[in-house]
Amino acid sequence: MSGAYLVRLSRPRFWLYLAGPVLVGVAWGVGSLGQLAAWRPWALFAFCLLPANVFLYGVNDRFDADIDQVNPKKDDKEARWQGGRGVWASIVAALAAGLALTAALPRGAWPWMLGFGALSVAYSAPPVRFKARPFLDSASNGLYVLPGAAAYVTVSGHQPDAWLMGGAWAWTMAMHTFSAIPDIEPDRRAGVRTTATVLGRRGTVGYCLGMWAVAAGLVSLASVPAAAVFAIYPVVLVAIEISGVPLGRAYWAYPWINAAAGAALTIGGLLATGEPGVWL
């Protein structure tokens, strides 16, 4: 096993899919910029940047090893499962780091972190294996926002707004299902049933539009400015459809789109503290 393989296993393009919600959760939870000096939110960010991704995608790749043999994106965009003691030791070490960090967080953050760990395994591993259960595969991907909720509790001392969490969860459902569109044919050849294989390309696009609209609607009940950021997603998807850009190619632009949206939400949260130092 090499360090380069572990980095590829952890999907660097998607590191911010877990670490980004932590930044948003911290920004929306702090009451003053001085709280940013605390070590716990930064430890959580560091964990979600690499170890959490090694754990999440390591479990995923282990139980998708057979399917991934016919998935072309594993040739250049990602890495095929290699296995071995070193890989398993890294996955176990990431799990241990997550449990140790969870113990150091406020108790109100524990359910979110434990939920993240449980769904990370249940999504890919039998007997549950949500990823091969249409619509449950989509719903279970709310796991990506759970570290953000834990970060919010850590800095604020109370639980996040239910409307915001519902909207964020709906957003992840749409994002996950959109990401499954390029895998429709490989999954069908491998006999795997997902939301995308059941709905087909056109139906999946409609599903994503609907869930992103739901996400924006739910978030608007708590924050109109944040809802405006969420509302960008159905607009972008319609633009992609009109332009004729292949969804398989457009998909790889979403890490940049998501990073920009996350940055907007983070800055918005910090601005809400009312402290001019946000711009320094």
Properties at a glance:
0% strand; single chain; 280 residues; mainly alpha; Farnesyl Diphosphate Synthase
Task: Describe the model.
- There is one protein chain.
- The protein is mostly helical and 280 residues long.
- The chain has a single domain (3-279), classed as Farnesyl Diphosphate Synthase, CATH 1.10.600.
- 68% of the residues lie in helices and 0% in strands.
- The chain contains 16 helices and no strands.
- The protein has helices at residues 3-9, 15-29, 39-49, 51-63, 65-68, 85-104, 110-124, 136-139, 146-156, 162-179, 184-189, 195-220, 224-230, 232-243, 247-250, 254-271.
- Helix 4 crosses helix 6 (85-104) and helix 12 crosses helix 14 (232-243).
**Please, how many domains?**
1
Q: Could you give a short account of the major beta sheet?
A: none
Helix content: 55-70%
Which radius of gyration do the C-alpha atoms yield? 18 Å
Which spans have pLDDT < 50 for at least 5 consecutive residues? none
SSE pattern: HHHHHHHHHHHHHHHH
Number of strands: 0
| Approximate shape | globular
CATH class, named Mainly Alpha
Distance, first to last CA: 43 Å
Q: Report the total helices.
A: 16
Could you say which structural class the secondary elements and strand pairing correspond to?
mainly alpha
Output mean pLDDT: 90
Q: How is the topology of this model organized?
A:
Elements: H1 3-9, H2 15-29, H3 39-49, H4 51-63, H5 65-68, H6 85-104, H7 110-124, H8 136-139, H9 146-156, H10 162-179, H11 184-189, H12 195-220, H13 224-230, H14 232-243, H15 247-250, H16 254-271
